[in-house]
Amino acid sequence: MRTSIWLAGTAIMLLALSACNNAQTPAEVQRDVTKAASSATAENTQASEKQADATSSANKALSDATRSADAKIADAAAEAAATRAEGNHKVALAKCESMAGDARKACKDEADAALAMAKAKAEAVKANHN
Fold it and tell me: Which has the higher per-residue pLDDT, 3 or 75?
């Protein structure tokens, strides 16, 4: 029994060693090299396409985020300008109270016009960024 195991092991080892010494013909080597190069080129092309798609997607997302941020900033600036204009309007109206008659009416009209102008400018800024 030991002899048969030893012979089987020797036979397997001889087969393994003989397989290591089988050289391919130059035509087979060239075919394998060409096949490997073609496969590598296809994989590189596919990877480049994926990279281009990812870059395009990231640029679009960045552009959308920037546009959204700009709109939010413009909205906040417009609201702040309108709030300042309303505060200035209240102060102007309070100053108008010290006047009488036509002067008071003209003062209030001027304050109202200044408020309307400031609010219109704020809305224009807001509209330009939305």
Answer: 75
Distance CA 117, CA 124 (A): 11
pTM: 0.56
Give the residue numbers spanning the domain of 101.
56-130
Structural domain count, the chain:
1
* Residue 99 in domain: yes
Q: Is residue 10 part of a domain?
A: no
Query: What is the rounded distance in angstroms from the CA atom of residue 64 to the CA atom of residue 70?
Result: 10
Is 3 within the bounds of a domain?
no
